[in-house]
Design brief:
37% of the residues lie in helices and 16% in strands. The chain is built from 14 helices and 15 strands.
Length: 353
C-alpha cells in the first residue's frame, strides 16, 4: 500500500527538533490495511526504556497464569506472599488492610497502596527525586519499607477512582516469581519476548548495568540523566528496554488473544476507573482520551499504556491504529500526550485511505 506519510513525518520532525526532547523513535501501523511506518530521529537508532509500559507485560503474565489456573484475580496477595513480608504496607486510619489486597486490586490500581517511588515522604523528598540527584538502586524489601512510611490513598477496592502506584506492580512481579519459580525477567523472556520474537526487547537488570549506554539516553527537562541502578531496580514496574516496532507486535498480541484468551482481554477493558486526566485504569491496562477539539475528527480513545520516560504504546480502536514510540523525556508528560494526539490527527488520511 502506497500512502503519503508527509504529515506524520512533519509532526515527528517538529517534536524531534525541540531542545527538551531526546531521540524520537515511533512506529505506526494499521494492520487492517497493511500500512506501517517507522521514524527514527537518530542513526543508528537505539532501543529505549519503555518505563511503565512494562506494566502491560507484567499484567499479561498475570492473565496467562490466571488462564492456567495458577492464580485468581480475587486471590489475596497472601496466597502467594508471606503475611509477614507484606504486613503493615497498607495501614489506613489505624487499620491494617494489607492482607485484604487482591491481585485484581494491584492490576487495576485500586489497592490504595502508596506509590513508594514517586510519592513524597514526610521530609518532602521521594525515592525518584533522590535518584535524579544521585543514581541509586534498591531491593523489593526496601521498596516495601518505604511504602510502610507512607499513607495509603484509600482502603483496597473502596473507591471508584484509581490511584496509580508503582508499589502495585512491584508486588505483582514478586507474585509472578512465586507462582512460576523463576525470576520475573525469565518469565517475561519465556512467556512473551521469545514466543513473539521480540528481538529488540529485554529486561534491564543489575547484570545489565554495563549495557546502559546501548540504550537511548533519557532527558529530565533539558538535562540528560544517567540512571542505570534506578532502572535496574524498577523491574516489573518499569524495567523493560524495547523498540517502537516491537511495541506494536506486543500490543497486537495482547489484544488479539495471541498471549491469552480474548475473553480475558474483555475483562481487562471492561471496568475503567478514573486516574489523573486524561487517563483511566482498567485491569492491567490504561485508557487515554482526548477532546473532540484536539482530535479534529480523528480517534479520541486510546488503549494501552503511557510512561514517565516519555514512551507511549496505544491502540485506537475506532481507527484500527497502533502508535508506539518515545520522546525520551521524563519531566513533562504533556509533551508525549500532545504528540500522540497530533500523530492520530496526521494519520487520519492513512487510516481512511
Amino acid at each position: 500500500m502506497t500512502v503519503d506519510e508527509t504529515r506524520i513525518r512533519s509532526v515527528l520532525d517538529r517534536f524531534a527538533a525541540r531542545a527538551d526532547v531526546g531521540a524520537v523513535s515511533f512506529a505506526l501501523a494499521t494492520p487492517s490495511t497493511g500500512w506501517s511506518m517507522l521514524y527514527e530521529s537518530e542513526s543508528p537508532a537505539r532501543p529505549y526504556f519503555i518505563g511503565s509500559i512494562t506494566k502491560l507485560y507484567t499484567a499479561a503474565i498475570i492473565m496467562q497464569l490466571r488462564q492456567e489456573g495458577v492464580l485468581g484475580l480475587d486471590d489475596p496477595i497472601t496466597t502467594f506472599l508471606d503475611p509477614d513480608l507484606v504486613s503493615a504496607i497498607h495501614v489506613y486510619r489505624e487499620t491494617d488492610y494489607s492482607e485484604q489486597i487482591t491481585v485484581r486490586h494491584l492490576l487495576s490500581h485500586t489497592s490504595g497502596l502508596p506509590n513508594y517511588l514517586m510519592q513524597p515522604r514526610d521530609d518532602g523528598g521521594s525515592v525518584f527525586g533522590d535518584a535524579l540527584e544521585r543514581d541509586r538502586g534498591w531491593t523489593f524489601d526496601q521498596a516495601l519499607g518505604v511504602t510502610r512510611t507512607m499513607r495509603p490513598a484509600f482502603p483496597p477496592g473502596t473507591s471508584r477512582r484509581a490511584y496509580f502506584s508503582h508499589t502495585n506492580y512491584a508486588i505483582l512481579g514478586r507474585i509472578i516469581e512465586q507462582a512460576t519459580s523463576v525470576p520475573w525477567e525469565a518469565a517475561v523472556a519465556e512467556r512473551i519476548i521469545g514466543p513473539l520474537g521480540l528481538a529488540g526487547t529485554w529486561s534491564f537488570s543489575v547484570g545489565d548495568v554495563d549495557r546502559y549506554d546501548g540504550v537511548s539516553p533519557v532527558l529530565h527537562g533539558r538535562r540528560t540523566v544517567r540512571l542505570p541502578l534506578t532502572m535496574a531496580s524498577v523491574r516489573a514496574q518499569g524495567g523493560i528496554v524495547s523498540t517502537a516496532e516491537d511495541g506494536i507486535v506486543f500490543l497486537r498480541a495482547l489484544l488479539d488473544g495471541s498471549l491469552f484468551d480474548r475473553q480475558l482481554v474483555g475483562e481487562m477493558t471492561g471496568d475503567w476507573r478514573r486516574l489523573t486526566f486524561p487517563s483511566h485504569a482498567g485491569v492491567g491496562i490504561m485508557r487515554s482520551r482526548i477532546s473532540a477539539l484536539a482530535s479534529q475528527g480523528g480517534p479520541r480513545e486510546f488503549v494501552g499504556h503511557p510512561s514517565s520516560t516519555g514512551a507511549v504504546l496505544y491502540f485506537a480502536p475506532a481507527a484500527g491504529l497502533f502508535i508506539s514510540g518515545t520522546i525520551n523525556q521524563m519531566q513533562n508528560a504533556d509533551v508525549a500526550r500532545r504528540l500522540l494526539a497530533q500523530l492520530a490527527v496526521a494519520a487520519k488520511g492513512v487510516v481512511r485511505g
